[in-house]
Amino acid sequence: MRYSLARGRGFFWDRPRPYVTTRGEPMERERRELPQPQREGEMGLLVRVDAAPEELATLTREHHDPHYHFCSFCYSSVTERYCSNFPPSFCIVTVEVLCFVFLHNEWVISPAKVCGITNESETVKRLRLAVTNKDFTFKAGQWVDFFIPEVAIVGGFSICSSPGLLEQDGVLELAVKHTVHPPAHWIHTQCSLDSEVALRVGGNFFFDPQPADSPVNLVLIAGGVGINPLFSILLHVADFHRNQESEKNGYKMGTVKLYYSAKNTSELLFKNNIFGLMNEFPGKITCSFHVTQQSSQICEELQPYITEGRISEKELEKHVFKDTLWYICGPPPMIESISKLLENFGVPTDCIYFEKWW
User: FAD-binding FR-type domain: which residues (predicted)?
Assistant: First the structure.
């Protein structure tokens, strides 16, 4: 038996009708007949189930699962699909079943409106998005599914702003490199102020310490546009430092070292913001920039911070301590080589976090 949650276009964005249909369209008749969630935090979903007829008996009323429970069959009709490789009596039945799930933030899709567009570099645009759903939150380092009404393909972009900016101003930021991928191409060629999109947060790559957690130091290693989630984490760390004096019971943040490698200085995103954080928190936030294909003279202002060549083993080894967490984001070969290097240094695998991008 196989079952899957319907995703994407079927979400209703208005909270009173939070149902998903596998056909991706409002179903007035079925919605009126559906039972309502009984417990706080639940959300109704329609689930498409493919099963042989005898297997449907396992989907009885109130069949519980750690994450959801099936409550009732929603349609009176089923689709039978006969299989040529089996006897005529064998068929696969497709039904749609209502289940209730506890609403995780990863399933919240929120409308958003573009309220700012800047050129972060010659190839990267920085978007500021006003999020209208007050229940939409994210953790530093996570990404969003990016839904564009006129583009069938869903984009996926890491958030480059801090959770604090969303809490205070109701906005978040993305930095998107120009590629032929339809969502990225739309951002660079058609997106404008007041363009309407939708967002859904996701990802297990994040830094989200709680007040009672022990202090840790961070080493952030970024390659190219892999800086995006790490810049979000860096901004989140800065917020912790700002709040430490006013919040006596808040999380006590350790130090952060950022290693950031790009082809050349023009592709080093957010460098002015990073310089500002280094000046605001000397000794607590430090950064080492690396360029691997610099063809022009490095300007005098940047020279003290720039190293030509890749991040060296010697540099990384001096940060190997038991209270250090490592976050890596960049091209897969870079992540694989650095992860292996850290393991050879004796860094526990549960202290190494990475997210690959392609």
Answer: 107-210
